[in-house]
């Protein structure tokens, strides 16, 4: 994620995350929209990281609620 921020900036990375998590784009489509056709692979990396982080947050919340 840090590499994407350094290369493309916060606005484009946030756009990619929003497109993936909120708007239902595939990681590749979000990457193309946020970073351009040649750099779609960055969308896959950012989307996977954002999805994994969201899952971790949800698991922590469920564990806190269950205890």
How would you portray this structure in words?
Residues 1-62 form the DUF8158 domain. InterPro entries: DUF8158 (IPR058471). It holds the Pfam family DUF8158. It contains 4 helices and no strands. It is mostly helical and 67 residues long. 82% of the residues lie in helices and 0% in strands. The chain has helices spanning 2-8, 10-21, 27-35, 40-66. It is elongated, with a radius of gyration of 13 Å. The model has no long low-confidence stretch (mean pLDDT 96). Helix 1 (2-8) crosses helix 2, helix 2 packs across helix 4 and helix 3 crosses helix 4 (40-66). The protein has one domain (2-66).
Summarize the structure.
The protein is mostly helical.
Keywords:
single chain, 67 residues, mainly alpha
């Amino acid at each position: 994620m840090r590499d994407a921020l350094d290369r493309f900036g916060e606005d484009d990375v946030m756009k990619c995350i929003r497109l993936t998590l909120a708007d239902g784009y595939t990681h590749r489509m979000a990457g193309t929209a946020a970073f351009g056709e040649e750099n779609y692979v960055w969308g896959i990396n950012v989307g996977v990281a954002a999805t994994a982080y969201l899952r971790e947050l949800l698991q922590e919340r469920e564990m806190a609620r269950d205890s």
